[in-house]
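step: validate -> pass
step: tokenize input -> pass
step: predict -> running
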Amino acid sequence: MDVAYPHERSRRPDVPPAGVPAPGFADAAGASAWLERELPNLVAAARHAAGHDLPRHAAHLAATLHRHLYEQGRSAEALAVHRYALDAARAAGDAAGEADALVLLGKVHWWFHNRLRRAAELFEHAADVAGVAGHRLGQVQALTALGAVCSLRGAHERAPRHFAAARAVVREVRDPGAEFDVRYFHAWHRLRCGEPAHRGFERCLAESRARGDRNGEWLALHGLGYAHLAGERGGPALRCFERALRTCRAVGDRRGTLGCLIGIASVHRAEGRGAQAASRYQEAVELARLIGNPNAECEAVHGFGRLACATGRPEQAVALFGRALDLATRLGRPVAEVRAHDGLAHAHRLLQQPDRARQHLRRALDILTDLGLEGLGTDLSYGERITASAIRRHLAR
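step: predict -> pass
step: emit ->
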């Protein structure tokens, strides 16, 4: 994990030196490939640890593998290892471990399945458990995640309360990473609410640079880019994304590089520069395939499809949205499926194929109903707002 995802070392548990020979890896691709090959064994090891009174080992495996499981779209494996960690912590009476496992399990429901209500329940429970146990860092992480999920659910009156509670506790923790997260996700909340978010992202940027945190630096620039884009300030947005891209490439952070390429493409698309947007989307798609990141590939392909619709190429859009739908279905990401079906409906309308458009609109509506959602939040990468009421209006026409 340290070779595959070097910029998140501080987010993973410390592991003592191995007493037996361990494999070495020349690059991130080799390390990631080893993780994929060994994943069944790693999940089995987590299960064994949980069932044989090794709770710390189960917790370490879950926390260590978390990023890889997300990047590779391994939702079933992620649910399994975090449940093993949770069961082991509860059996051992380890309240801090229980809180940590609840937070990671909540993120699986959030990131993969968009089960935001369930994620919020897990984060709220984690905050309570951590608070009683005096596990202040776990409490901050749970409250921060709870604020982020409430923001995504549209509970804009509750989200600020959770962020305020997290800020109050983080003063005791004095953990720079936790402080960054509270400020960063609160800035995203303000951005979703249409409020000024620049100051929050700029403070994240200044503090990340002061402590030499390059991962935090690109994230802050990335958020600042979208803050400018939301305000229709294409020039400053583009400069932020390009600075973030240079940072990621300088340190070899290919995951961050993907996010920056999509951000740059979003600016070009919003300002009508189709050729430049297509070039960046294609670069992102190729990089995502090269490093085996299907989540980012799904996002890039979807953006490419929206661009194809906007530039009068509906046949290409159908192919691209079809690929996005395949990826979203395989990854178990129903929100991405809704976006893909909506895109396919739009492309088929442009092709004067109303029956096919109607099929995709109905499927999108079915998924939203299953999720218990009236609609999806505005996607800042694509500027779209998909709601059940809008879909019904399209169907009526």
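step: describe -> The chain has a mean pLDDT of 91.
step: cleanup -> pass
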